[in-house]
Design goal:
The protein is of the alpha/beta class. The chain folds into two domains: 183 residues, Rossmann fold (3-Layer(aba) Sandwich), CATH 3.40.50; 116 residues, Phosphofructokinase domain (Rossmann fold, 3-Layer(aba) Sandwich). The protein is 41% helix and 18% strand. It contains eleven helices and eleven strands. The strands form two sheets. Strands 3-2-1-4-5-10-11 form a seven-stranded mixed beta sheet, sandwiched between helices. Strands 7-8-6-9 form a four-stranded parallel beta sheet, with helices on both faces. Helix 7 links the parallel strand 7 and strand 8. The longest helix is centred in the middle third of the chain and has 22 residues. The radius of gyration is 22 Å and the shape is elongated. The chain starts with 5 loop residues before the first strand and ends with a helix. It binds 6-O-phosphono-beta-D-fructofuranose. 6-O-phosphono-beta-D-fructofuranose binds next to loops.
Length: 326
């Protein structure tokens, strides 16, 4: 121990509720260990452009309950280039920063992994994305809050759907994965859940809806993950609407409301644990690893695995959703 004296922290990729709680934990754990901390604004872009800001304990006061990220975030193409990473390295050297905590998703970790193959300054990751698709952690920061935001919205839609005998297609986020769709679907008693992991689902959906019609269901909520292979909620609604003229069909895309808002208790606590663990990992001379949560224990996962390995959805949950929606 002793190599790390000054750490940098940044958020990168799509923001997620709980990122601020993670920044706070990183800053305060660093200060507790007598380290200097510098915030890097706008993710890797700010690292390349030199957007540095010293952080003190008071800099992270009253942010644990706030969505978004006080450090701002960005998706950065330049960090994918050797020249971009060189600039980032030179800036870190100039600032005397000798360890970096990156909070973000798989794109963030892919960049950090390459950087750590080229340069000695260690990067450690904290998984922050509402999509929850990152391998090596049961939960990513922001997922729980996004789910709660989604179900509040879907519950409201259920009220109006049932008042009018309507068939609603509700599109949720999740990038290429069905994590948000499955859990929000179960939590709202959705009649069907369409996820990117299963192809060509509109045929089986028609059968399901016919069955529901026979049982005189007054409303139907179909959750469609944005990454679904048939082009999203609006396209699927178009494919089936002529066969179900008894219902009027409506489409709602929940969109970016799923990314904002005050983080849930679970996300705040998880972010606090992960931020703390990331600084501890740097102090333990770790590099190129993500901290994650497995069976409620903090673990470390090499970026190599976190980035390359596919994380499957929970198929038992999907089956359960099917059984309970009959
Ligand atoms: O990764 C988070 C996420 O919100 C995804 O669910 C979604 O596909 C994407 O980001 C949207 O990105 P943008 O904010 O750039 O539109």
């Amino acid at each position: 121990m002793g190599k790390i004296k000054h750490i940098g922290v940044l958020t990168s990729g799509g923001d997620a509720p709980g990122m601020n709680a993670a920044i706070r934990a990183v800053v305060r754990t660093a200060i507790y260990n007598d380290l200097e901390v510098t915030g890097i604004r706008q993710g890797y872009q700010g690292l390349i452009k030199g957007f540095f800001k010293p952080l003190k304990s008071h800099s992270v006061s009253e942010i644990i309950q706030r969505g978004g990220t006080i450090l701002k975030t960005a998706r950065c193409e330049e960090f994918k280039t050797e020249a971009g990473r060189r600039k980032a390295y030179d800036n870190l050297k100039e600032q005397n920063i000798n360890g970096v905590v990156v909070i973000g998703g798989d794109g963030t970790f892919a960049g950090a992994r390459i950087f750590n193959e080229e340069y000695e300054i260690p990067f450690v990751g904290v998984p922050g994305t509402i999509d929850n698709y990152i391998f090596g952690t049961d939960r990513t920061i922001g997922y729980d809050t996004a789910l709660n935001t989604a179900i509040q919205a879907i519950d409201k839609i259920r009220d109006t759907a049932s008042a009018h005998n309507r068939l609603f297609f509700i599109e949720v986020m999740g990038a290429e994965a069905g994590f948000i769709a499955i859990r929000s679907g179960i939590a709202c008693g959705a009649e069907a859940i369409l996820i990117p992991e299963i192809k060509d689902q509109s045929k089986s959906l028609k059968k399901q809806l016919e069955e529901g019609k026979r049982r005189k269901k007054s409303s139907n909520i179909i959750i469609v993950a944005e990454g679904d292979d048939e082009g999203g909620a609006a396209k699927i609604a178009n494919k089936v609407k002529d066969d179900f003229k008894d219902y009027s069909v409506r489409v709602t895309v929940l969109g970016h409301i799923q990314r904002g808002g005050s983080p849930s208790a679970f996300d705040r606590v998880t972010a606090s644990r992960m931020g703390y663990a990331a600084v501890e990992a740097l102090l333990d001379d770790q590099k190129s690893v993500m901290v994650g949560l497995k069976n409620n224990e903090i673990v470390q996962v090499p970026f190599r695995k976190a980035v390359k390995t596919y994380k499957d959805v929970n198929w038992e949950l999907l089956e359960l959703a099917g059984i309970l929606s009959v």
